[in-house]
Amino acid sequence: MANTYTQLHIQFVFAVKYREALIQNIWKDRLQQYMTGIIQNNDHKLLQINNMRSYAHPCWLSS
After folding, report:
1. CA pair distance 16, 18, nearest whole angstrom
2. Which residue of 1, 23, 26, 50 has the fewest CB atoms within a 10 Å radius of its CB?
3. Cα 54 to the center of its chain, rounded Å
4. Residue 51, SS3?
5. Could you give the CA distance from residue 10 to residue 61 in angstroms, rounded to a whole number?
6. Where are the domains of the chain?
7. What DSSP letter does each residue of 24-45 carry, written as one string?
8. CATH top-level class of 8-62
9. What is the DSSP letter of 17?
10. Strand, helix or coil at 10?
């Protein structure tokens, strides 16, 4: 088939053990920057990222 295009959206939820609220607010930006760097260094496009005190939630587009 000519001009076939595939788009894959990936969503992960990384939870802290026992869902304890261990992710401090002072770490939130640094954690998001770290996950963003990993996703972008693998040539993916980050769509959304969020984290709460007990989990991190990135969503990206894989080419």
Report:
1. 6
2. 1
3. 14
4. strand
5. 6
6. 8-62
7. -HHHHHHHHHHHHHHHHHTT-E
8. alpha beta
9. G
10. strand
